[in-house]
Amino acid sequence: NAEYMGKRQLSAREYLTLYNQRDESLMILHKERITFLVASQPYILDIFLNGSDRLAILRVETDKSDTNLKLPPFLNINREVTHDDAFSSYAIAQRGATEKKQ
Questions:
Q1: What is the enclosing helix (H) or strand (E) of 97?
Q2: How far apart (Å, rounded) are the C-alpha atoms in residues 42 and 35?
Q3: How far apart are CA 51 and CA 49, in angstroms?
Q4: For the chain, N or C: smaller number of CB within 10 Å?
Q5: pTM above 0.70, yes or no
């Protein structure tokens, strides 16, 4: 039951429809996104600007079956969070909303 997430541009009507269906109990996430290449491998660094987590998540998308991916040497990476649901955007938005209420 794999989840597919594609990218496409929304029309103004689609955006307004989705905006009106948003979950207002969640914190809106503000982040800075930095994209860069290391050895021809694209990376995405998302730095979350709100919330108390002081969180940055490095994303890499690869079709290589080789699991020995070389991470950028100039970053201090704490741990792997690929399969940790606590680091999904939804979970981060939930935590932020809870912090805001306190």
A1: helix 89-101
A2: 7
A3: 7
A4: N
A5: yes
Q: What is the DSSP string of 36-92?
A: EEETTEEEEEEEE-SSSS--EEEEE--------PPPPTTS------TT-GGGSHHHH
Q: What is the CA radius of gyration of the chain?
A: 16
Instruction: Tokens for 76, please give them.
Output: 């201090």
pLDDT digits (tens, 9 = 90+) for 13-32: 999 999 999 999 999 999 99
Average pLDDT of the residues of the chain:
86
Burial class (CB in 10 A: 0-12, 13-18, 19+), 45: middle
Written as six digits, the tokens of 15 are: 């955006």
Enter the tokens of residue 64: 């290589």
Backbone phi and psi for residue 74, each to the nearest 5 degrees, phi listed first: -90, 5
Tokens coding 13: 């009507």
Contact 48, 31 (CB under 8 A): yes
